[in-house]
């Protein structure tokens, strides 16, 4: 029992930074130490970069069934894709370190890349088998290659079992809906309030693993299998999300101000319209069919809006099966064979409200449509009403039926094999191969085919029968015209024509072959005069090949999803050196420097088109560690890191579509002078006669860009680690980090391109015009357009301070107490979306542009009591500082985030309690409750919610479902 208590004690700290000591590392062959962030191996190695280590017991304390749940509680992380994202979800789970994006953190599994860079899905990792998670802050491309800009997250699994291990857990959410104001608001809008109390969102997870040592411990085989299931939660089950909340002031015609109301979508079963024809007397205004059935159009007001919340998921359903195995066998000290195989089958559904003829699309509405009254046609077509023409019109019409469901299926495979060993004289080697394959299928159900909607709206009267023009000309003989001019006028037959399913599939693979040699030159006498330890080196070669093949059926392509394919191959050589300069001298207990260099040569190719590109890039690092005495260590690092563009960013199929914008060089009196227009391709003969974009609908070219170059980042860290001898079992570290990502890959809105060109004449923007060689226009098929593909744009920058403290002390016969604290103070979170343009800082803000709340200060603290009876009681305190709506700043780039209510989110404090009881050495029970006091999340204007917002709040940041309760056990045989 004493050994069990020691185990619980050692893992009690929540996320205490281990400050680069051996506790943060694992042994390699020969007794050397392997540290995340370096390939050098030696017995006394310490990390020179800030590193947080999360132990396996933290998963038990939290009742976590996903690995991202544990990491997202750390202040270094911002919530990303997870089970609480439904609309627009790709079904994956990701992490976002330093709020620089999930694609700028490198995810490793046992020191190797997890999956293809654009297919990372943390659901692949069985949480019950996680031994620890190493979180390294700052760039690490010199060690690992592309993607390690904000840092590295390395999941280390338990692979050496000798026996059987069963881990099982069940949990659910419980919430009391008692927000009187929201419930009254919902009743006043004619909506049913959420139940007064709910128990839902069940989560079950079980993993069984078995292992066996053989050949006197020189070999081991471990296999595992797991099953996990999440039950869905609808938005109608919570007060905060039972209707889409909007600020009355932000909605024209609402009549009241400074309060939220139950809004919703303007895609309603009544039918709404925005005439775009110049002949319409209501051009640009939003009209709706009068609910009295009089056949007239009236100005839209929010009382007509459709409540999308009841069908929308607050938590996606998910069902996952995992299986795999690990093996190793030591032939001799010079050769140990090892390998692994892992598999995941995951199916998840997202669900949103019934589909609609989409309001954001301009359809050709027939000006003698047989379903429309004369008054309706006059409002849409003006003087052209009753003629055999069409008028461009944005049409919104909710077709009531089954909700839209997105069926997302993954079959993921990963295997590795290698040989490693000790060569003697301080040298060891590791040669390995890893291959991962992600097979993804998506079926979107119950969705309106917008191409069919366009044909169904272009109807005329043929012998008294409403008939699609596409039937007359034979382009679509099956077309059935739809009646959007009468509330509830779309019949079952008409809906059946509109509805359909779309299917897409992808096959994404990554193959990596790598070889490295690590050596301690001290055993060969290479030691500096003032140091006892020798110089350490690591050399290696790596070859990676990533492929993507994405397919889309006809329906998906009609809705704008196009096939694509591509290959990225990279060949790399790398080296690293660690030099102990001074040891055991006054004021120099140790002084060590470390340097690394990597050369990468990229070859990119698209098989379907034959397009190729390539580039070569160097990455490098320099680190320093100085310990004047045993109790104090100062560490600093600089890294030049990169993120190479992925296959989709390079090779996504390009297409031209309608985009909002105004050509500054069009018309008889252009708003831009000729000198600027000339930069966009306008000749003197064209100037003053270029046709303007009709209804401000220009053409834009979207898709991939084979000319992309890698993002580059310069990252700096400086910190101090204190481990005083006078205060045993106490450690404190404070680290400063500064990361700037330049030429980050994104796209620029065509309207911004046109505006920036007209205002500044900057060739960067003006060169993105491709004009029709005859007319100079930038609209129409086979004509001009604005380039809005992926491109290297501005910069991202963040800096801050990480504070980590951990202290354990005995309390006599009552056991021991552990206190661990991890906090982050954010100094800046800056974005410059346009090269040479303005920038904005999202520190302490939230909103449409800044996205999720970005507090200046966040921390997680855990107080754990380890009793003599093998019971551990643990209390966690999660603190998120308050944030302010970004439009309240004086930065004009943030002025669009307008609302008059709930413009500040106060500080949030959550308390979680767990209990772990070791029955004996084989059996341990656990139970707990997160968000003990059932604290409601902040309530926000739904119009502000971008980047992973859902249900009028940010469920990745705050506990949106209420308190969660779990119980589980671990058994070892």
Q: Report the sheet with the most strands, covering strand number, pairing sense and barrel closure.
A: 22 strands, antiparallel, barrel
Helix/strand-derived class? mainly beta
- Tell me the number of strands: 53
CATH architecture annotation name of the largest domain? Beta Barrel
What is the count of distinct domains? 2
Count up the helices: 14
Family: Belongs to the TonB-dependent receptor family.
Keywords: Cell outer membrane, Membrane, Signal, TonB box, Transmembrane, Transmembrane beta strand, Transport
Protein name: TonB-denpendent receptor
Signal peptide: 1-24
Task: Describe, in short, the structure shown.
The protein is mostly beta strands and 973 residues long. It is built from 14 helices and 53 strands.
Describe the overall structure:
10% of the residues lie in helices and 46% in strands. The chain contains 14 helices and 53 strands. By secondary structure, it is mainly beta. The radius of gyration is 30 Å and the shape is globular. The chain has a 22-stranded antiparallel β-barrel, surrounded by four helices. The longest helix has 11 residues, at 750-760. Mean pLDDT is 90; it is low at 1-25 and 251-257. It folds into two domains: 2-149 and 164-173 and 207-232 and 316-350 and 410-442 and 525-553 and 562-653 and 706-747 and 790-972, Maltoporin, Chain A (Beta Barrel), CATH 2.40.170; 655-702 and 752-787, no CATH class.
């Amino acid at each position: 029992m004493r050994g069990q208590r020691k185990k619980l004690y050692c893992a009690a700290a929540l996320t205490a930074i281990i400050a680069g000591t051996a506790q943060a590392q694992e042994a390699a062959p020969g007794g050397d130490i392997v540290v995340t962030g370096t390939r050098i191996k030696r017995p006394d190695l310490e990390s020179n970069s800030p590193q947080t280590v999360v132990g396996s017991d933290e998963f038990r304390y939290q009742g976590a069934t996903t690995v991202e749940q544990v990491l997202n509680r750390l202040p270094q992380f911002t919530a990303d894709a997870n089970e609480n994202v439904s609309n627009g979800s790709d079904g994956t789970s990701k992490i976002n370190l330093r709020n620089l994006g999930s694609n700028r953190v490198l995810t490793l599994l046992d020191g190797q890349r997890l999956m293809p860079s654009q297919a990372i899905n943390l659901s692949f990792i069985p949480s019950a088998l996680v031994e620890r998670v190493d979180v390294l802050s700052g760039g690490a491309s010199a060690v690992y290659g592309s993607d390690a800009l904000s840092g590295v997250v390395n999941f280390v699994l338990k692979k050496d079992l000798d026996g059987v291990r069963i881990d099982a857990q069940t949990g659910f959410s419980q919430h009391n809906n008692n927000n009187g104001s929201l419930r009254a608001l919902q009743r006043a809008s004619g909506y049913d309030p959420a139940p007064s109390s709910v128990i839902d969102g069940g989560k079950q997870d079980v993993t069984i693993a078995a292992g066996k040592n053989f050949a006197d411990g020189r070999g081991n085989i471990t296999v595992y299998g797991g099953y996990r299931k999440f039950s869905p939660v609808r938005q109608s089950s919570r007060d905060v999300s039972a209707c889409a909340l909007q600020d009355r002031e932000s909605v024209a015609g609402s009549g009241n101000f400074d309060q939220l109301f139950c809004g919703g979508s303007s895609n309603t079963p009544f039918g709404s319209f925005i005439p775009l024809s110049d002949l319409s007397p209501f051009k640009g205004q939003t009209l709706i069919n009068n609910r009295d059935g009089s056949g007239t159009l009236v100005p839209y007001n929010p009382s007509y809006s459709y409540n999308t919340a009841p069908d929308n998921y607050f938590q996606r359903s998910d069902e996952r099966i995992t299986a795999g195995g690990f093996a190793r066998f030591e032939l001799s000290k010079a050769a140990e064979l090892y390998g692994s195989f892992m598999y995941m089958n995951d199916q998840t559904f997202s669900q949103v409200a019934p589909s609609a003829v989409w309001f954001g699309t301009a359809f050709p509405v027939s000006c003698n449509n047989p379903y429309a009254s004369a008054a309706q046609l006059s409002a849409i077509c003006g003087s052209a009403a009753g003629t055999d023409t069409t008028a461009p019109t944005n049409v919104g019409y909710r077709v009531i039926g089954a909700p839209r469901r997105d069926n997302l299926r993954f079959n993921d495979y990963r295997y590795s094999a290698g040989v490693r060993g000790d060569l003697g004289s301080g040298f060891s080697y590791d040669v390995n191969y890893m291959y991962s394959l992600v097979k993804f299928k998506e079926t979107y159900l119950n969705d309106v085919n917008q191409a069919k909607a366009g044909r169904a709206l272009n109807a005329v009267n043929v012998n008294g029968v409403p008939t699609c023009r596409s039937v007359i000309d034979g382009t679509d003989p099956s077309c059935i015209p739809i009646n959007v001019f009468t509330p509830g006028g779309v019949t079952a037959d008409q809906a059946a024509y509109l509805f359909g399913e779309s299917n897409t599939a992808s096959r994404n693979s990554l193959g990596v072959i790598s070889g490295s040699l690590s050596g301690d030159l001290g055993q060969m006498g290479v030691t500096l005069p003032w140091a006892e330890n020798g110089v350490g080196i690591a050399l290696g070669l790596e070859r990676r090949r990533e492929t993507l093949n994405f397919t889309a059926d006809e329906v998906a392509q009609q809705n704008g999803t196009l096939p694509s394919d591509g290959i990225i191959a990279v060949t790399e050589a790398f080296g690293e050196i660690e030099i102990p300069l001074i040891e055991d001298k006054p004021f120099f207990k140790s002084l060590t420097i470390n340097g690394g260099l990597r050369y990468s040569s990229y070859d990119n190719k698209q098989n379907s088109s034959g397009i190729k590109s390539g580039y070569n890039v160097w990455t490098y690092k320099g680190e320093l560690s100085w310990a004047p005495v045993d109790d104090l260590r100062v560490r600093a690092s600089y890294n030049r890191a990169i993120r190479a563009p992925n296959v989709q960013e390079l090779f996504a199929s390009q297409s031209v579509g309608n985009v909002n914008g105004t050509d500054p060089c069009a018309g008889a009196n252009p708003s831009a002078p000729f000198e600027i227009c000339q930069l966009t391709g306008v000749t003197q003969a064209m100037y003053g006669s270029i046709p303007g974009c009709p209804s401000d609908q220009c053409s834009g070219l979207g898709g991939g860009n084979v000319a992309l170059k890698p993002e580059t980042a310069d990252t700096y860290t400086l910190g101090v680690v204190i481990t005083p001898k006078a205060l045993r079992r106490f450690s404190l570290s404070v680290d400063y980090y500064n990361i700037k990502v330049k030429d980050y890959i994104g796209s620029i809105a065509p309207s911004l391109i046109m505006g920036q060109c007209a205002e500044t004449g900057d060739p960067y923007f003006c060169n993105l015009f491709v004009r029709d060689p005859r007319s100079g226009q930038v609209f129409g098929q086979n004509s001009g357009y604005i380039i809005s593909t992926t491109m290297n744009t501005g910069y991202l920058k963040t800096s801050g301070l990480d504070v980590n403290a951990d202290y354990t002390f005995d309390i006599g016969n009552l056991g021991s107490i552990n206190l661990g604290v991890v906090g982050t103070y954010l100094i800046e979170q800056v974005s410059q979306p346009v090269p040479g343009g303005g920038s904005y800082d999202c520190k302490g803000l939230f909103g449409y542009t800044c996205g999720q709340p970005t507090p200046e200060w966040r921390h997680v603290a855990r107080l754990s009591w380890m009793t003599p009876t093998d019971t551990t009681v643990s209390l966690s305190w999660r603190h998120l500082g308050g944030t302010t709506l970004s439009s309240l700043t004086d930065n004009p780039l943030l002025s669009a985030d307008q609302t008059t209510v709930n413009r500040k989110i106060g500080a949030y404090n959550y308390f979680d309690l767990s209990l772990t009881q070791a029955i004996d050495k084989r059996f341990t029970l656990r139970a707990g409750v997160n968000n003990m006091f059932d604290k409601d999340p902040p309530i926000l204007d739904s119009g502000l919610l971008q980047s992973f917002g859902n249900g009028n709040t940010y469920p990745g940041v705050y506990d949106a479902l209420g308190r969660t309760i779990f119980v589980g056990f671990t058994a070892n045989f």
